[in-house]
């Protein structure tokens, strides 16, 4: 059994198409097809159900996938150990929530790329539910975002930290000059907030619901950057993770609303699939995030 055939099998399983796997691996589709036929012949079972140009794993394919990942992972680890300089190579697929694009998390990525130039990073910013689904389908190596409705039977969180979620306004907003603001007063303001499936959107609505209050007016936008720009240009309020607005708070562009509430917090995690073996590049990323990333 050839290692390259196992790699091809895993790539097709992740991408769902022979053509995409061929493009990703830089070879002809006929080569990919031949490799899978050879592997299926050796194993005595079909690995994929063909549905036009798309494929999905057969029950046997699903059964051997974790074993194939382990074999390929061990081979990669041995290959990395053989490098005299101890360099780490390979691909690292990271899924992050959009708000992290507005934090110093990108500095961590830049530093990782500098320390491990042999690693190709594939980073995707999406909603938490979509990224969690991709992680469970093995389309990601690691999800970095807010803990929200996790299937902890299948997911482990090697890194977990609490972060504050705060009400913020632009520096020219009259609320910025207040020493104390009631929740009732805040409910009468216009809110610019993230999409409905975000964890902190739900948290904010829960804060008002517990006091039998309803927000007078709200606008939903997927982009944290756009939200920050809007609340600086008009008298509006938002509710965002502190890590996503820290630069604006430090510069005075945004101001935390002084509201009499216990700190709203949510857990930020780096999550992986329990059944997956951690590649050297993933282990290096988790180590750097644990020791060098400050929210």
SSE map:
Layout: H1 3-15, H2 18-25, H3 29-43, E1 48-51, E2 54-57, H4 59-82, E3 90-97, H5 105-115, E4 119-126, H6 128-136, E5 142-146, E6 155-170, H7 183-187, E7 190-193, H8 199-210, E8 217-220, H9 224-233, E9 236-241, H10 242-251, E10 254-256, E11 264-273, H11 280-292
Parallel strand pairs: 3-4, 3-5, 7-8, 7-9
Antiparallel strand pairs: 1-2, 5-11, 6-9, 6-10, 6-11
Helix pairs in contact: 1-2, 1-3, 1-4, 2-3
What's the count of strands?
Answer: 11
Order of helices and strands: HHHEEHEHEHEEHEHEHEHEEH
Unreliable residue stretches = none
Structural class comes to alpha/beta
Tell me what the CATH architecture of the domain at 162-267 is: 3-Layer(aba) Sandwich
Q: Helix coverage percent of residues?
A: 40-55%
**Overall shape:** elongated
Rg, rounded, reads 23 Å
Q: Give the strand content.
A: 15-25%
Mean pLDDT: 87
How far the N terminus sits from the C terminus, by CA atoms, comes to 46 Å
| Biggest sheet character | 9 strands, mixed
CATH topology of the domain at 162-267, anyone?
Answer: D-Maltodextrin-Binding Protein, domain 2
CATH class of the domain at 162-267: Alpha Beta
Q: What is the helix tally?
A: 11
Task: Describe, in plain words, how this protein is organized in 3D.
The protein is an alpha/beta fold and 295 residues long. Among the domains are: 1-82, Arc Repressor Mutant, subunit A (Orthogonal Bundle); 162-267, D-Maltodextrin-Binding Protein, domain 2, CATH 3.40.190. Helices cover 44% and strands 24% of the residues. It is built from 11 helices and 11 strands. Strands 3, 4, 5, 6, 7, 8, 9, 10 and 11 form a 9-stranded mixed sheet that branches. It has a two-stranded antiparallel sheet with strand order 1-2. β7, α8 (199-210) and β8 form a beta-alpha-beta unit. The longest helix has 24 residues, at 59-82. The relative contact order is 0.15. The mean pLDDT is 87.
């Amino acid at each position: 059994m050839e290692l390259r055939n196992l790699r091809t099998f895993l790539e097709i399983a992740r991408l769902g198409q022979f053509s995409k796997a061929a493009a990703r691996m830089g070879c002809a589709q006929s080569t990919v097809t031949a490799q899978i036929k050879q592997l299926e012949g050796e194993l005595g079972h079909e690995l994929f159900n063909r549905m036009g140009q798309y494929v999905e794993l057969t029950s046997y394919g699903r059964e051997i996938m974790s074993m194939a990942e382990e074999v390929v992972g061990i081979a990669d680890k041995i290959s990395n150990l053989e490098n005299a300089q101890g360099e780490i190579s390979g691909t690292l697929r990271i899924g992050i929530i959009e708000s992290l694009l507005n934090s110093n998390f990108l500095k961590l990525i830049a530093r990782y790329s500098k320390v491990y130039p042999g690693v190709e990073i594939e980073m995707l910013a999406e909603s938490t539910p979509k990224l969690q689904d991709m992680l469970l389908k093995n389309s990601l190596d690691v999800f970095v975002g807010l803990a929200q409705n996790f299937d902890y039977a299948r997911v482990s969180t090697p890194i977990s930290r609490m972060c504050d979620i705060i009400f913020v306004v632009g520096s020219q907003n009259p609320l910025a000059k207040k020493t104390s603001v009631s929740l009732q007063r805040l409910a009468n303001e216009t809110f610019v907030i993230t999409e409905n499936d975000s964890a902190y959107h739900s948290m904010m609505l829960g804060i008002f619901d517990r006091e039998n209050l309803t927000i007078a007016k709200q606008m939903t936008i997927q982009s944290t950057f756009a939200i920050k720009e809007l609340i600086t240009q008009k008298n509006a309020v938002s509710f965002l993770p502190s890590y996503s607005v820290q630069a604006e708070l430090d510069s005075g562009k945004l101001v935390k609303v002084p509201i009499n509430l216990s700190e709203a917090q949510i857990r930020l995690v780096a999550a992986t699939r329990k059944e997956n073996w951690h590649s050297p590049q993933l282990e290096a990323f988790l180590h750097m995030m644990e020791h060098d990333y400050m929210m």
